[in-house]
Amino acid sequence: MATKQAASAKWWARLPNWKFRLLPRDTRTIITCVFLGLTMAVINQITERLDLALTGGSIPIVSAIVVCAIWVPSAAFYGLTGALITAWINPIISNLTASQPMAPFLFLTNAAHTVPVALLVWLMKSRDKGLKLWQVVLIGQIGGVCDALMFGLGNRVILHLPWDFITGQVLVVQPCYLLGSFITYGIMRRLVNTGLVKKQRDLKAAADAV
Prior knowledge:
- By secondary structure, the chain is mainly alpha-helical.
- It is built from seven helices and no strands.
- It has helices at 2-11, 27-55, 61-97, 106-124, 133-159, 163-194, 203-209.
- It is globular and about 50 Å long.
- The N and C termini lie far apart (37 Å).
- Mean pLDDT is 85; it is low at 202-210.
């Protein structure tokens, strides 16, 4: 029992530290972000059609849960580079395949989610420590709110939906982003531990090693 509790506490503890740069331009970062963007595009081709069947594409219930799992890690690990690459690959494919009526507006909605995440990580993450669970949840929720507001504006401009509906849509997707943030936390931990993300040694550990 004690071992289980210790493992659980370790899982929900602070994430391992990683080296964060706001605007990385190295080849490894770009290739990794393109891969993440393509992965998100494939997944979104499924979730967008599910949302189209459930809500006519006006409320991204399924997509709101799933997008956090790739958008937040890419922006948190690779800054604005990761944020913009992963945000804009899917809209290109969505517009080419006409997967939903909101496709032309997805360039703005996706960037409205990922760019604030990258900036918040830049502001909140200590150089010598990873993020805590509550920080990941808070960052994900703020990104989700920005996304939902921009998506609501798109609903108004493209689908001419009433503001009452848009307000309800913004409120409905917030629990979806909250659930997505918890999933994101686990994925971020796994990504750091797999070596896909460049770790940064804890300063205290480095001092002790000396």
